[in-house]
Design brief:
The structure is a single chain. The chain is of the alpha/beta class. About 40% of the residues lie in helices and about 15% in strands. It has one domain: Thiamin diphosphate (ThDP)-binding fold, Pyr/PP domains (Rossmann fold), CATH 3.40.50. Strand 3, helix 6 and strand 4 form a beta-alpha-beta unit. It starts with a helix and ends with a helix. It binds thiamine diphosphate and magnesium ion.
């Protein structure tokens, strides 16, 4: 990746992170931890890789992005607002009565959202269907699915994984946000997912593992995934829950937090 492209994406990620903190902060409470850990992957997908058109959100051959861990909706909304899918002012209505931006992703409410989520475990099944449909249409579209590490304790994920591997759905690129925390504690204490790379390999995925906050590494991993034929891809993102929000980063209970005005202003350097 060229230096200036990397700088552009780094700057975008910072803006998206700040918008997300401000959005949740102004509402006063929300899923800050899991939103902060997916900022970089969203940045690479939306600003570098995805074949999308904000002016034509439903174009049939577009790439699809599924935020299966639907509680990270605010991070996705920050990107979609920045890309012009809807007016930026909408972000100040997050989760309020009548909003088009509910805390969890809803494809019927928000332009640019490809799949409704919130009930964990369902996104990969939807993504497999979309990827298979794109293959049948031979339209060259990719499907990107973002899963949580706690989320994959849901059995449905593995039914979908088995099918994707079996059918060699190679236009399916799945990310695991491996932030080591689920709602109420550490994954390893509650129900370990290790050996995680071996599990996906056993389901016939092409598996890579990268620093999930390293934009260049994520970008290269996606390129590698696209160069692989005859296998779906899993990119394990080693991330930090709450990354970049000083009041949440590295804190065990950062899943959903109340955020004070002082905290979000200090974290974003905004008024
Ligand atoms: C089927 C289902 N069970 C439980 C919940 C409640 N819940 C919301 S987020 C969450 C934790 C998910 O952890 P993880 O996938 O690691 O996401 P992170 O918080 O790290 O973003 C849980 C249990 C849910 N939304 N759906
Ligand atoms: Mg997690």
């Amino acid at each position: 990746m060229e230096e200036n492209q990397l700088k552009l994406l780094d700057d975008k990620a910072l803006k998206i992170r700040k918008d997300t903190i401000e959005m949740i902060g102004r509402f006063g409470v929300g899923h800050i931890g899991g939103a902060m850990s997916v900022i970089e992957v969203l940045t690479v997908i939306y600003y570098e890789k995805a074949n999308i058109d904000p002016k034509n959100p439903l174009k049939s051959d577009r790439d699809r992005v599924i935020m299966s861990k639907g509680h990270a909706g605010p991070a996705l909304y920050a990107v979609l607002a920045d890309l012009g899918y809807f007016p930026r002012e909408w972000i100040y209505t997050l989760n309020q009565n009548g909003t088009r931006l509910p805390s969890h992703c809803d494809m019927n409410k928000t332009p640019g959202v490809d799949m409704t989520a919130g009930s964990l475990g369902q996104g990969l099944s939807a993504g497999v269907g979309m990827a298979l449909a794109a293959k049948m249409d031979n339209n060259g579209a990719y499907v990107y699915v973002i899963l949580g590490d706690g989320e994959i304790q849901e059995g449905q994920v593995w039914e979908a994984a088995m099918f994707a591997g079996s059918k060699k759905i190679d236009n399916l690129i799945v990310f695991l946000d491996y932030n080591k925390l689920q709602l109420d504690g550490y994954i390893c204490d509650i129900n370990t997912i290790e050996p995680i790379a071996d599990k996906w390999r056993a389901f016939n995925f092409y598996v890579q593992s990268v620093d999930g906050h390293d934009i260049k590494a994520i970008s290269e991993a996606i390129d590698n995934a696209k160069a692989q034929h005859d296998a779906p891809s899993m990119i394990i993102l080693n991330t930090i829950k709450g990354k970049g929000a000083y009041f949440a980063e590295g804190i065990k209970n950062c899943h959903s937090m109340t955020i004070t005005e002082e905290q979000w202003k200090k974290a974003t350097d905004r008024e």
